[in-house]
Amino acid sequence: MAEYLTGSLKPATGFDIEVKTTGETPGKGNIYLTLMDADTIPGDEGYVIAITKKLITLSAKNAAGLFRGIQTIRQLLPAEVAPGAEQKKILEIATGSISDYPVYGYRGAMLDVARHFFSVDDVKRVIDLIEIYKMNALHLHLSDDQGWRIEIKSWPNLALHGGNTEVGGGEGGYFTQEQYSEIVKYADARYIIIVPEIDMPGHTNAALASYAELNCSGKATELYTGTEVGFSTLCTKKEVTYKFVDDVVRELAALTTGPYIHIGGDESHVTKKEDYIPFVERVQDIVLSHNKKALGWDEISLGVLRPGTVAQFWANAENAKRAVGQGTKLLMSPASRTYIDMKYDSTTVLGLKWAGYIEVDASYNWDPATLVPGIGSGNIIGIEAPLWTETITNMEELEYMVFPRLPGLAEVGWTPSELRNWEDFKGRLGNHAKRFKAMGINYYPSKLVPWIE
Ligand code: TNX
């Protein structure tokens, strides 16, 4: 952790800060990181920072808490400390003390690498950007009609054929298992879990084009590069389909250090309800048999949900309530607040608008615990901001949709609603313009925010 901190300060400060281990009370002029097993440290990922004229002390119960606290130290330092910023001789930081912890244990973003493929380096940059705001989960949407993006050794054509293209007909791509593991390792070092999603039984054209036997017709489909949804389905009645799911989940579970495998389950419009329900139930059992928990879009609550399964609310309150009625916890991704692929307003060139325009204030100003009547904080594990990429083709476009909405969404997951208000937040957000610039982040300069440049 100390090396991570000094490494993150070095590019901007030019300082080569020495890292030492000590059992003694640290002297003057140090940043002291300490693990303690104390009741004074709140929450699972909580931390306490004390800043005096002589010393900065960051205390936590575990490394994740230290990592979150380090992000706060980075933010307390002037914007000039951001990587890529100009060097400044004196970096001032206010004295004081902070005791901080998150209200929700899951605070995530999602990247759709299926509609348009993004490289390992792109995904690492996304991790770099979400870690600053103390998010702890990155969900990767690894398969859809337009592409299959993860090598599966027992079904090699999925990636070799199904990974060949993307929306608009570009060349697509996929992660080898080795590359994928590199992403997981990078995220692990930052106390961020990677949640892999294989969307099923709909959103599966890339798989159906790669293996004829997964189709009820027995014939492989053509690869697809459009943006329609809801036209594909695995053949839920064939036994080979479950062999396929078991193989894919087994290989994916072996690459996954976090607790979840996301099974999709959304918009399976051409799967009959009587076929969809047993499919979703059996796939959860397959996930459990590989010692993982299933996450799925809210439609999965049509079936019986297994212990530990989490339903991701995105659009349908009835589905969400049905999940909660079964004792299932929810991950909150209401499309009208968290879908960062939605346009900011009518002038935004990129993005979609089916869930409405989402200006920066709309993505900040909501409470996960009061959004759906009957669903309270006790039913919720946290929030996630999905970036679907039908219209997003590269990092520059990605950043424009993600920033500046992501910091606010991260705060929705971290800070209790009673302590949040837009008037206060917009001023704090305005202060991040310099940081965005120093990090080369292409952001949308919303007129609602008083940017300080
Ligand atoms: C709905 S959200 C979808 C995605 C699209 C997205 C576009 C969800 C579970 N399904 O397949 O990419 O809308 O905003």
Helix and strand content put the structural class at alpha/beta
Instruction: Please report the number of helical segments.
Output: 15
Identify the bound ligands: ligand TNX
Unreliable runs:
none
Topology, number of strands: 14
* Helix-strand sequence: HEEEHEEHEEEHHEHHEHEEHEHHEHHHH
Radius of gyration: 22 Å
Mean pLDDT: 95
Q: What does the overall shape look like?
A: globular
Strand fraction = 15-25%
Major sheet: size, sense and barrel closure?
Answer: 8 strands, parallel, barrel
Q: What is the topology, as strand order, of the major beta sheet? A: 5-6-9-10-11-12-13-14
Euclidean distance between termini CA atoms: 31 Å
Q: Helices and strands in order, then pairings?
A:
Elements: H1 2-13, E1 30-35, E2 47-51, E3 55-60, H2 63-76, E4 96-100, E5 106-112, H3 120-131, E6 137-141, E7 143-144, E8 147-148, H4 157-160, H5 177-188, E9 193-200, H6 205-210, H7 239-255, E10 260-264, H8 273-289, E11 293-297, E12 310-313, H9 317-325, E13 329-332, H10 335-338, H11 360-364, E14 380-387, H12 395-402, H13 405-414, H14 422-430, H15 433-438
Parallel strand pairs: 1-3, 5-6, 5-14, 6-9, 9-10, 10-11, 11-12, 12-13, 13-14
Antiparallel strand pairs: 2-3, 2-4, 7-8
Helix pairs in contact: 3-5, 7-8
The structure holds ligand TNX.
Ligand TNX binds at residues 229, 266-267, 297, 314, 339, 341, 352, 388, 390.
